[in-house]
Amino acid sequence: MKTVLIAASLLLTAATPHIAMAQAQAPAAAPAPAYSVETTDIGTLLDNPATKAVLDKNLPGFTANPQIDMARSMTLKGVQQYAADTLTDAALAKVQADLNKIPAKK
Length: 106
Prior knowledge:
This protein is mainly alpha-helical. The chain has a domain at 42-100. It contains 5 helices and no strands. It has helices at residues 2-25, 42-47, 49-58, 76-79, 89-99. The longest helix is centred in the first third of the chain and has 24 residues, at 2-25. The termini are far apart.
């Protein structure tokens, strides 16, 4: 019995560095984007020139809509139900792809 415990102990000791190395080499999760169509409110996107340019590029006329101020506290995903013809899933995917390229404003 003592021999089995010693052998098991040696196996665990020998395996520990390999487990630690495997965990250290695991790729880190990608950081969340600074801006999101699902979580960033429209007011924040409008107030940042870089993100506003993304909206203007992908959603022509959206930022000039006279009702835009009423939506400042909502997200693009939240407004989608009211403008489904403009804020399609494909359009929001394009907006998100461009937003992913913009670092957080400091």
